[in-house]
Amino acid sequence: MLELVDLSHSYGSYRAIDKVNLTVAQGEVVCVVGPSGCGKSTLLRSIAGLIKPTGGRVLLDGRPVRSTPDNLAVVFQDYSRSLYPWLSALANVSLPLRRKGLDRRAREDAAMAALTEVGLAAAAGKYPWEMSGGMQQRVSIARALAYRPSLLLMDEPFGSVDAQTREELEDLVLRVCAHHGMTILLITHDVDESVYVGDRVVVLSKAPGHVVGDLPVDLPGPRDQIRTRELDAFVRLRAEVGRMVRGRHNNHELETM
């Protein structure tokens, strides 16, 4: 579904990412981690067509991405700036559906179905300022779900909520992916989260970011916040990803993974 070929981007003389090569299959959840400033957000914005990379290519369904594709949705970290405060939750979710040419009734039905899926049917009439941070981020996720994108990009979507809400939203993403078979690329700085949510964990080096590890996550499902994190396989993989993020790997380790 998604292919990055030698993807690079520079801001003037500063090189943020350098020759990133990555493929993501239909229905996969791929988490991208790396040290602070390694170019994770630059990578996501290049994939989304929000910036034009200075080198390489982004292919979505085999077609080059030159502007924001119609079959793509993005969930950002800062939910307070991604929702319109003067619109209700229902109106926020239904707004992007105008691009699909749906009439008002069809837009509202799809929006309500998405809000129901994220547990916010009763809050459809509330405005963002009337909701908690976790609820606002659920509205952002519902907006993406209602659009039914082929690819969902998530840029550290749980970084601004408390620990318990974060776990609830992680489980929500897993349920959504299982139900819709959705392809998700999730950018995160949290190693535990990457292992818990992902089918694969891709590790970027420090800037200029390039891929130093691509690890499959072979954990039994359905995943559970307590039982899964207690598994020896989870602990080992979390430690391996943590070492790679901190640059504590060598060529032999990379060749044997």
Task: Describe this protein's structure.
The protein is α/β, with parallel strands linked by helices. It has two domains: 2-71 and 149-256, P-loop containing nucleotide triphosphate hydrolases (Rossmann fold), CATH 3.40.50.300; 82-148, no CATH class. 37% of the residues lie in helices and 23% in strands. The protein is built from ten helices and ten strands. It has helices at residues 40-47, 79-82, 89-94, 104-117, 133-147, 163-180, 191-197, 227-230, 232-245, 251-256, and strands at 2-11, 14-24, 29-33, 55-60, 63-64, 72-75, 151-155, 183-187, 200-204, 211-216. The strands form two sheets. It has a six-stranded mixed beta sheet, with helices on both faces. A four-stranded antiparallel beta sheet has the order 2-1-4-5, covered by helices on one side. Strand 4 and strand 5 form a beta hairpin. The radius of gyration is 18 Å and the shape is globular.
Could you provide a short overview of the structure?
The chain is of the alpha/beta class. It has helices spanning 40-47, 79-82, 89-94, 104-117, 133-147, 163-180, 191-197, 227-230, 232-245, 251-256; strands at residues 2-11, 14-24, 29-33, 55-60, 63-64, 72-75, 151-155, 183-187, 200-204, 211-216.
Key structural traits:
257 residues; six-stranded mixed sheet; Rossmann fold; 2 domains; four-stranded antiparallel sheet; 10 helices; alpha/beta
